Amino acid sequence: MLAPATVIGENLVRPYFTEVDDQKLLQIMRWSVVGVAMCSVLMALWKSNIYDLVAQSSALSLVSLFVPLTAGLYWKRASAAGSLAAMLVGMSVWIYCEYVVPSAWPALVWGGLASWAAMWLGSWLSPDDTYTAYAKWKACSSAFRQMDRHG
């Protein structure tokens, strides 16, 4: 429960709300622990089989985290907006297909496809220069390494 609360505070609140001081951030993380605990209890009460809970948490991770991670590693045009869109859309479509309108195809397929589409569309509509900055840093660091080798 502490790990998701810390992720909420450090990775979601701090970058987007820069005016939040440390005391307020600590309070947000404490309330996040309560929120995560309540969600965990509701999920445990809703599904009594631990295997179903593990399977659903793995599927949710796959449709919301696999695409941004893979695109961030291998696609030069991946952007932060595309990653956020992929996470939100993939998770939403998976939940919709899993619980609201079940289909003949697994919800995992629909969530994964929607996540890929959102990643592409979000990165296309809102490009950033993350890869360019990385390429400049890499070129600069390799130049420093060569200078260090040659004296």
Would you give an account of this structure?
By secondary structure, this protein is mainly alpha-helical. It has 2 domains: 1-46; 49-151, no CATH class. 83% of the residues lie in helices and 0% in strands. The longest helix is centred in the N-terminal third of the chain and has 25 residues, at 22-46. The mean pLDDT is 86.
Helix-strand blueprint:
Blueprint: H1 2-16, H2 22-46, H3 50-74, H4 80-100, H5 107-125, H6 130-149
Helix pairs in contact: 1-2, 3-4, 3-5, 4-5
Mean pLDDT: 86
The succession of helices and strands, N to C, reads HHHHHH
| Tally of DSSP β-strands | 0
**Number of individual domains:** 2
Number of helices: 6
The computed structural class is mainly alpha
Helix content: over 70%
Global outline: globular
- Rg from C-alpha positions? 20 Å
Tell me the strand percentage band: under 5%
Uncertain parts: none
